[in-house]
Amino acid sequence: MGRRVDTLWGQIAVIVCLTAVVLGWAFGVNLESQREQLGNHRFSEVQLFSDRVSDRLLSLQARGQAIAQLGVLRFLLDDPELDKPLLQNYLQGLSNKFEAIEAIELYDDQNRLVVGTELNQLRGYAGQADNQPAMGEEMGRYSPLMLDSKHHRIEHWQRLPIPRNPHGVAYAAIYSDLIPVLSAFYRTDPMGEIPLVMLDLQGTPLKLSHTGGSVRLSPEERASYQALWPEIHGQQFGQLTLGERHYLYLKVAAGHFEPFYLVSSFDDHDLELLARDHRRLLGASGLVLVLFLCWLTIQKHGLLRQQGHFKLAMDITEQLYQHAGSTLLFTTSGKLLSGNPSALKLLGLKGGRHGALWFAKLFDSPQARKGWEIALEQGRWSGQLPAREMQHSLDVELCHTQGEGHYPLVVANLHALTDEEEAYRTLSRTPVGLALLDSNYRLVLSNRALQSMLGLDADACKKLSLTDLVSLPEGITPKGITATLGRDEAWEERVWLATANQGILPLLAKIVASDERGQLVLTLMSPVEPSVAVAGLRELRLFYRRAEAPAALIRITPHHEITPPHETRQINQCLIRQQLATLVPKHSCIAQAGDHILLLVSNSRPQQVEAIAAEMAARFRGTPLTLKFSACWLDGEMELNDALALMRQGEGAVHGDLVWAADGPDYHTVRTYTGES
Fold first, then answer.
1. Among 260, 380, 448, 475, which one is most buried in terms of CB atoms within 10 A?
2. Helix, strand, coil percentages for the chain (3-state, nearest 5)
3. Residue 463 pLDDT > 70, yes or no?
4. Residues with Cβ < 8 Å from 316, sequence gap 6 or more?
5. pLDDT confidence band for 575 (50 / 70 / 90)
6. What pLDDT is attached to residue 644?
7. Which fold has domain 324-417?
8. How sure is the predictor about 372, in pLDDT bands with cuts at 50, 70 and 90?
9. Where do the PAS domain residues begin and end (predicted)?
10. 6 or 484: which carries more pLDDT confidence?
11. Res. 280 pLDDT band, cuts 50 70 90
12. How many whole angstroms separate alpha carbon 141 and alpha carbon 128?
């Protein structure tokens, strides 16, 4: 028997039988149980609503009693000259303020109306509460609940005595419409919105919920509730079934108000439709469950059979590639099945099986994940990948064995790269600037990223030295770098690089020794933290050597009426540089020289310089800071110091104009521009 259950068809038969038993038990849930559950749920909802209604009716009763005893009302009635308009406005304000109170009227001891609020086309008080017993400390009288099916209202009058006064006002009649209180019921359950009907002590029904889209009962519904009334009259709460309809009811008695009943119901036919829908859903779920379990069982048997074939193939394969190249075997999910000794040595792993290792752990990089996906989709991929915890990369070739009669595997062939191959490939693909320097710090080899930043080809880059390439920090020389490399493994500092189309950039430079022949590797990349350094005259000279003529040099001098502290001057200079950076073209350099801000624009025109000066003056107009501008044309042969000296000579010569302090190509010579002009 145990052998039969272990077979594929035996396990499927067990699954089908167990599912049939479970579904049979679920379908056997009887209608009476569902009716009881639904009835209990609705009864709890109605009971919660009845508690809420009782609280609101008691609040309404307390408001009526308070109105008759208000000190303001007594004050108005004690006035020898009764101001009826004022009294009517006061009563109208009370009616508007209190919920469900629609009108207030004052009568004398002869039942004559003294003053009252508007009744909005309703009849005034006609003694509806006169024959009722006096109740409570205030000895008020409360009318029965008057159901108006035509206008869908539940009317109620309170007659409350008024303290003795000189005008003979004996009592107040307060009219309320209880529909806003009793119709605030909206609850739902699996059968939809719960219906709710009110029955007064005469058995008159009035619909409170909005089920069916109508606020009034149909003749059939009215007849059914009239037949229900004798069955529930005198009862406090309960449930009963009449014909095919199930009713649940609850008696509500709140304060001095006449008791009434809240009734809800549902049809057994609708309950059967709901149960049928549940059975269909349960049956569909059971069918899906059976199919899923059968599929899992089939997959399990198929996998066991495949594993048996695969184990035999693995034993043969392992013997074959023991003496082959560096080879690894992976499943299509990336799990390492086996690897020969040479491959394990390349990866820094010891011998033996490594079933807990995965391709993503051995080669953890975005390029490795992309290569794996390509190998699975296209069948083959090759490239260089950094190995786990190794200092070098490996040449990896992935081959996906797929097709009829083949167990799906991924074979990885590994090849070690020489130092020269690794250096060349790194130079060709790195996204940062990279260069190979000789012992004299001249470029021997550069990658495409650096050539693109400089706007030069590989041959032109070989003519550059390190000082032609970057602006070193103050006090740093190539000899100092050599001394640092003699002590440490690397030299690393922030430098400035003059680019061909991005101006001058602050970068992080790192130099390490390549080999015993004295070659050095220079790496230029963006710093991890944003640079807060400001370019100076050294960086401006470096940019000037790479600028394209005609170039314009602009000097901006902040002028203060009262010399501010040093910290304030630094803040002002920073603001000027920030505003200037939003105006200048991309291929330009902003530098700080003492209290002056210098701007060098490559391949410039007079209109461009005048526009920059005018816009900067406009931005700082109206502030305590006044800007003064001087400009000079540079032809590539003039030194920066000479240009600055010319601008100092022409400073203040002409006010209100822009003066160029050196001849440019077909340009006028000297101009000076100040923010005051």
1. 260
2. 40, 25, 35
3. yes
4. none
5. confident
6. 82
7. Beta-Lactamase (3.30.450)
8. very high
9. 431-514
10. 484
11. low
12. 9
Q: What is the DSSP letter of 213?
A: G
- Please give the average per-residue pLDDT across 153-157, as a whole number: 87
Strand partners, 105: 116, 173
> What residue type is 309 in one-letter code?
H
Locate 405 and state its tokens: 């009669």
The Cα–Cα gap between 585 and 620 comes to 20
pLDDT tens digit sequence for 173-229: 998 888 888 877 777 777 777 888 888 888 888 888 777 666 778 888 888 888 888
Q: Say which residue the tokens 């790479």 belong to.
A: 546
Instruction: Kindly report the number of other CB atoms within 10 A of residue 295's CB atom.
Output: 10
pTM of the model: 0.40
- Write down the CATH number for the domain with range 36-279: 3.30.450.20
Can you give the three-state secondary structure of 10-49, one letter per residue?
HHHHHHHHHHHHHHHHHHCCCHHHHHHHHHHHHHHHHHHH
Q: In this structure, how many other beta carbons lie within 10 angstroms of the beta carbon of residue 227? A: 12
Residue 266: name the closest of 191, 211, 205, 203 by CA.
191
Q: Where in the chain is the domain with CATH 3.30.70.270?
A: 544-674
* CATH number belonging to domain 426-525: 3.30.450.20
Q: How many helices, marked H, and strands, marked E, lie in the chain? A: 20, 29
Per the listing, tokens 């790496």 go with 523
What average pLDDT is seen over the chain?
A: 77
Give the residue range(s) of CATH 3.30.450.20 domains in the chain: 36-279, 324-417, 426-525
Kindly give the residue spans of alpha helices, DSSP state H, lying in 28-148: 31-69, 71-78, 84-97
